[in-house]
Amino acid sequence: MGIDIQLKGPVVDWAKSAGVKQFLFISSAGIYKPTDEPPHVEGDVVKADAGHVGVEKYIAEIFSSWAIFRPQYMIGSGNNKDCEEWFFDRTNCPMQLTNIAHVRDLSSILTLAVENPEAASGNIFNCHFYAEPRAAKEILVWQGTTNLPEDLKERFDEYVKIGPRQEANAIRN
Length: 173
Hints:
This protein is of the alpha/beta class. The chain has one domain (about 5-80, about 95-145): NAD(P)-binding Rossmann-like Domain (Rossmann fold, 3-Layer(aba) Sandwich), CATH 3.40.50.720. It has helices at about 5-15, 50-60, 85-90, 105-115, 115-120, 135-140, 150-160, 165-170; strands at about 25, 65-70, 75, 100, 125. The chain has a 3-stranded parallel beta sheet with strand order 1-2-5. Strands 3-4 form a two-stranded parallel sheet. This is UDP-GLUCOSE 4-EPIMERASE. One of its GO terms (molecular function) is UDP-glucose 4-epimerase activity. InterPro entries: NAD(P)-bd_dom_sf (IPR036291).
């Protein structure tokens, strides 16, 4: 189920009526049209029928200060997604190409946007940090703090400890 304006519109409307001055929306890098030349950069073509696109446009119409964040697959200890497990279960696949973002990096860029709303306002930030977070680096002067090999080793160790196909249920319970 995608995120669409019928689901998120009331939240946006409530925030505006409550006097919220800055609206930050965590969207998804999954809205980009597929390309043969990754990684995606801000401004790449998006799927017109993706629900997130309508929400992003609505936020931009309603708020004068807004920013959109587009992470891909989130990694990091304690997250509620099982995307790492999907990849770990397929370690024998010859080709796996994707972009990932660590929860620490996403939280740090959100913090910068709150601390500097003028710089963040009206911008879209890709948040797949091991690929191309160009706008975050240029506009918010963001610097990543994570290390891909160490982060994946941490998650893989947790995965092995809990066991295949059980991690997602353990985290959600």
